[in-house]
């Protein structure tokens, strides 16, 4: 059972629910029109509004706590971005009646801390490309102590608590606490600890039957090597392509067995951002899975804004982890 008497759990759930609900409203109200005009402004608006909402709630709950967010208001303060800032301010007024643009910028900048010994890390909209395509995205918030994630929450507006894609449904709120398991509930309902159901990974141990997951965006991974990996393990099904940390929620729920983030051939020096992996990785671990880098090392969240010491990601249901790492070695991933 996840306890809401624990102040960090209660805050993280409340903050992600608020931010992801704002993002969902923005996707509903702005994205379809923007799609026809090749206009990226909805993702700008949602990203900044979601970060401001979390910054606001954090300061009220844990004044002075470190928050490492993906965004900073600097880009928004230029005259070219005036229209976006006005939209963001209008959406933020749903959270803080009467708030003005200057205060919104300051709330966004509540999230510009550098990582310390203990910190929160936030991806206000993970999967911005999915958000703009009207597909999957997530709000991700995690708490890290001494380089180890202790708490992670994902808000997933476009999957239901029974893990079905649904673009007009109730959405999901997923939480994991170190040693306390992984749990899922509804994003749109009041937060109530009795409404959370436990998540556990798949019990599949036959590599040929492993369902693979990978980024929707081909340039975030190496698709040719994923095909080689698939042949190496004798896998039969095509990999599922999906945006954002929603993939971690699916893996934690037994809806897949192996999730790979291989290095893109154009970006061999790419290192994962902490906010892209922190919440999702603990959700898989607490559901019984294993998350490492491509060399089998555990993820080290004590090295700054990126996982500097880790290359890519291999996440699995645990039973197939050894075979997955072996296959990665064979294909030189
Ligand atoms: P996904 O939708 O799983 O591909 O994950 C989205 C995240 O991928 C974004 O939040 C980006 O921070 C991250 N990303 C951007 N470029 C790359 C890259 N070259 N390789 C891996 N991840 C990337
Ligand atoms: Mg992201």
Task: Please provide a written account of the structure.
With 333 residues, the protein is an alpha+beta fold. The protein is 35% helix and 18% strand. It contains 9 helices and 12 strands. It has helices spanning 7-35, 41-61, 82-92, 101-108, 128-133, 223-233, 246-252, 274-286, 321-330, and strands at residues 67-69, 118-126, 138-145, 148-156, 172-177, 181-186, 197-198, 212-215, 240-242, 258-261, 290-292, 313-316. The strands form 2 sheets. A 7-stranded mixed β-sheet has the order 1-2-3-4-5-6-7, with helices on both faces. The longest helix is centred in the first third of the chain and has 29 residues, at 7-35. The termini are far apart. Magnesium ion is lined by residues 123, 126, 276.
Topology, element by element:
Elements: H1 7-35, H2 41-61, E1 67-69, H3 82-92, H4 101-108, E2 118-126, H5 128-133, E3 138-145, E4 148-156, E5 172-177, E6 181-186, E7 197-198, E8 212-215, H6 223-233, E9 240-242, H7 246-252, E10 258-261, H8 274-286, E11 290-292, E12 313-316, H9 321-330
Parallel strand pairs: 1-2, 8-9, 8-10
Antiparallel strand pairs: 2-3, 3-4, 4-5, 5-6, 6-7, 10-12, 11-12
Helix pairs in contact: 1-2, 2-3, 2-4, 7-8
This protein binds adenosine monophosphate (AMP) and magnesium ion.
Adenosine monophosphate binds next to loops.
Number of strand elements: 12
Global morphology = globular
Instruction: Characterize the largest beta sheet: strand count, sense, and whether it forms a barrel.
Output: 7 strands, mixed
Outline the low-pLDDT stretches.
Answer: none
Radius of gyration, CA atoms, in whole angstroms: 19 Å
Structural class: alpha+beta
Order of helices and strands: HHEHHEHEEEEEEHEHEHEEH
